Recover the amino acids of this structure.
């Protein structure tokens, strides 16, 4: 298989992954009558089962057992799992409580935070255009605080929690499928503890639900794992700098859905903040494109 064809496949997989992440809010809206914590429980439990099946098919158990024999790494993955669960929980809550635009803003900010964290914790040096992009993003957030007296806290928490998660996972150097399985495995006892002991909504008992609602809830595992598998396939075929150009697909879908499908208000403070972030991302992407051209 030629490199050109590999790149085309990688591009298609990357576009699929980020598109699926972008349209995920439509899924969560279908089950918005279920509390966010209960949806999170379903996402953890069914992801674990589906990932176990995938690991069996791909014969990854020996490699996974090798990781489980390292207590320090497993303990660290409990921390990353808790961080990921918090990010998932807030994302679900935001989507189903009229904050889709905040979620969109958060995932626009995330790549800029990744660059900043790379400098602060991984010893990476920022180029001039990267510095400009980070400064523009900071100004966009600060102007909302100074002129309108509010911080986009949902966006900031989503962006920072996912950036910290990515940083920690990079340091752990565990493959994506195995790592997500271990995180889900460590979280599942807590998820079941909450589900069986504290979940008290009318939808907590699957036997009381309609079959259609139960199918929607079971689909939480698919919504979690399928885009991840596409992303892994893309990452194997594309350079990270190339992969980065696809990461704006998701928040762009969320922005369009929030404004035009669900009628969330795009007030001046939020629009100005988005404007700064979009400008920062244009600068950031231009820098990445220049680096790709230099290497080629």
């Amino acid at each position: 298989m030629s490199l050109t064809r590999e790149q085309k496949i990688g591009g298609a997989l990357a576009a699929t992954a980020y598109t699926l992440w972008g349209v995920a809010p439509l899924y969560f809206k279908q089950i918005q009558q279920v509390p966010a914590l209960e949806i999170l429980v379903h996402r953890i439990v069914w992801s674990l089962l589906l990932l176990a099946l995938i690991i069996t098919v791909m014969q990854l158990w020996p490699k996974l057992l090798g990781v489980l024999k390292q207590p320090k790494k497993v303990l660290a993955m409990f921390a990353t799992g808790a961080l990921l669960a918090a990010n998932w929980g807030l994302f679900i809550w935001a989507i189903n409580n009229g904050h889709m635009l905040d979620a969109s803003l958060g995932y626009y900010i995330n790549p800029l935070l990744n660059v900043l964290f790379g400098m602060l914790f991984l010893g990476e040096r920022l180029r001039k255009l990267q510095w400009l992009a980070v400064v523009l993003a900071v100004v966009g957030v600060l102007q909302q605080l100074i002129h309108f007296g509010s911080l986009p806290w949902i966006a900031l928490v989503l962006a920072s929690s996912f950036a910290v998660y990515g940083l920690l996972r990079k340091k752990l150097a565990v493959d994506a499928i195995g790592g997500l399985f271990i995180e889900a495995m460590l979280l599942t006892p807590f998820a079941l503890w909450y589900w069986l002991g504290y979940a008290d909504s009318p939808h907590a008992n699957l036997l009381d639900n309609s079959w259609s609602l139960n199918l929607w809830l079971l689909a939480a595992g698919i919504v979690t794992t399928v885009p991840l598998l596409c992303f892994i396939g893309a990452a194997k075929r594309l350079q990270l700098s190339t992969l980065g150009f696809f990461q704006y697909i998701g928040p762009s879908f969320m922005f369009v859905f929030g404004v035009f499908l669900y009628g969330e208000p795009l007030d001046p403070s939020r629009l100005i903040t988005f404007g700064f972030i979009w400008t920062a991302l244009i600068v950031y992407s231009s820098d990445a494109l220049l680096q790709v051209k230099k290497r080629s």
